[in-house]
Amino acid sequence: MFAKTLISRAVLVVFVCVFALGLVERTLAHPSLSTNSKILIAGRAVATWPMDVPAGENRPVLVFLPGWGGVGNVNAAVSAQNMNLVNQGYVTLAIGFDDLGGWTNNIDAQTTSGLDALCADVTIPANCNAIVLEGESYGGAQNYWVMEYIRSHGYAGKALGFLSEDAGYAAPGNITDWNTGAFTRTGLADTAVYSVAMIENLGDTTFPVDACAWGNCGARTLADAHQARGDANVLSICPPGGNHGTRGYADWNAWVVSAIKTMIHVMHGIPTFTGYTSPTLSVGNACVSAMLLPGLSVSGINIVANGQPVRLRGVSMGDPFLARNPAWYPQYSTADYADLAQNWHANVVRISIFPTQWKNTDGNTDHAALLAGLAREVNAALDNGLYVIISYHVIGWPDGWYQAAYPGNPADTYDSSLNVAISFWTQMAQTYGADTRIIFDLWNEPVHDAADWSEANYWADLKPSYETLIQTVRNNDAQNIVLATGTGWASWLGGIKDNPLADANVVYAYHQYSNNGFNTAAQWDHDTGGLIGVKPLIVSEWGYEDADVTNPFFPGTQASYGDPFTQWMDSYQLSNLAWVYHHDWTPALLKADGSLTLYGTFVKGYLSSLASAHFAVIGDYGSAGQAESDVANQIKSWNPDFIVTVGDNNYGTGAAGTIDANIGQYYHDYIYPYSGAYGAGAAYNRFFPILGNHDWYTTNAQPYLDYFSLPGNERYYDFVRGPVHFFMLDSDPSEPDGISSLSVQAQWLQNALAVSTSPWNLVFVHHAPFSSGQHGSNPTLQWPYQAWGADAVLSGHDHTYERIVKNNLPYFVNGLGGSSLYNFGTPIADSQFRYNANYGAMLVDATDTAIHFQLINRAGIVMDSFSLGALPADSIFLPLILR
What we know:
alpha/beta; Rossmann fold; TIM Barrel; Purple Acid Phosphatase, chain A, domain 2; 9-stranded mixed beta sheet; 8-stranded parallel beta barrel
């Protein structure tokens, strides 16, 4: 097996300079580990790295800056952290540890000189495009301006990360600011001001990071200061459980090492080098991962963050305050929100607040206490990387919650409910109006007083209520997205399309449950009133109760409702939230003991699937023989979510008489719609082919176009699954829209890649742009894929497997699906792996942060393995926060 990892999107130009001194080899206490070490600048910069780094494999660089005098326990801690990271395979650079008193003089220049020498020395396996600075105890502003200095002295564009232990704590000594020469004593407020100023000076490519050991002393203030500016590139680290004095240095050092490795994940991608191990930060060791989220707004039909579309996925929470009964509605804990973010892969929660809490019906008018309680919930969600929807949770029209007929309608004489809502949203706008990470759900489930909910005039009756509440929010200078539901418990959106609200930041909300009429895609299309693709839409509640529920009110199963409804939502890429993360309301995701219902298990798996993709890729396969059967059986044993092909689906001439035997015989259970002779088809389409030259041998490739139902014009198209955007091309010369880089098809691809917001963009094309096989490379298909935004190109045509990497862009040739095997010619430049000894297929696994390609032959042996690590989805806007 041959394995290699590329870091995509964060690889920048390497800065090279000259300076190097002698080599000193040492053996450390770590079992069987030998290290190399170089003194680079008169003992003030020491580079250390493992001796057994494979040739050509460069490692990220961790620069350790001294803090409080660089002596005593701090020096020991640095040494332990330093060697821990070396032991794990990183290159480290320790600065200034021969200064045994006071603050290290000229640390900014020393750090720059040390990096210059390190990066110029070709004997050190350093990746100088992946640098993290680690400032030790009480570094404060000193460490910020060190980073500022080196970025302005040759290291801009190196995607530098920065972690400073105790950075928010008041430094015990004077620090010289290199910009002004002035002496400063940094403190919590000063550090926050300086951090914000540095972002303003250096722009959004800067990644300052704070790790606070002493309580919550800097992390929150720094994060809040940057959030107030709209900066979303500050990684703030503050582990609970005490500082390094109370935790013990061994535990503290291990935590800092994991924090540093997590930073590298966020900034540079997962560096899966030989011997690499993942960070250990988790809820289990009292550290929670979260995103410092950018604000949300509406653009066209999309919810966007910093201009990039965001698909929200999550769950609704029960009202944490209803009836003030802790036994029934306890407040949710931080662990609940962490569970949803980390284990369910949610990115939004909807917090339901009943109007009774804001009226005098329960004798409780303490809005200050309610606001404080809500703030606890909101902050716990945001701190765990979850957007928040605050829902004013009216249900239908029982007296005391919601009057019959709509408040605000001129014919309605019962406006008390509207007045309560105005009061509520006034307080919400004043409290959260500056934080557009929070969405306002204005009415939950309006119901007209008539039996028929389908008439458009009912929306006309309801619309004035929304206009009043939206105006209330906007009058308080709040630009948060607002949700507006339709009628009939939000299950009917008729009338909105032709009479929409005028506000530019409105998203329309749809609720769908298993007992709401006919559970078919056609019915759901109808109930959404023609808004799909026309107005921004979110499914803010959906659900069913499975066989584990006695006397269900929302009867259903995964097969009858869960799968088809989620597939319908996915087909339109709709944001959605399942109801409800509680055990007493229905349909419940949880049981009373905290375990999951069958429905909860399904939802957890579904939300997780939106953050990943597990699929097979086959090529040159459609020949109806033992080899194709073996490969198909191998693929099915992987249980892929779906299958993608790279062409030549129907040998020998693409005829109608052979297509079902060549394709449906082996893959009918992935195809929808399927009307062939080999059994039932799939419930939804999980088979995505592209045309090959053999498919075109019958006029206009008509049997292929008749057999499959595909997006777009069906010859070339795109679709999204999980974190991957698939671009399916037609490379045959018969393609009406051309195959050159200037063709109509190429322009479509360039435009589609330009607007893609997925972490991974994969291009599929039958004829190989590059190949060492007997067909060879095809210059016509050598489009500027990388410049347009592609992360990998997958092809077939040659009945071989080959991996070629051109300028860090991988090209795969994958033609071992079942037709005859080809020989290789002379290997072309940049060919890294070739295989033609047996049939096989590719298995690909993708998450927001990594994508892993494998070639597995029909004997089940992994022949090639290749990974790309990248920034998480939207990570230029959403870096990780650890608290």
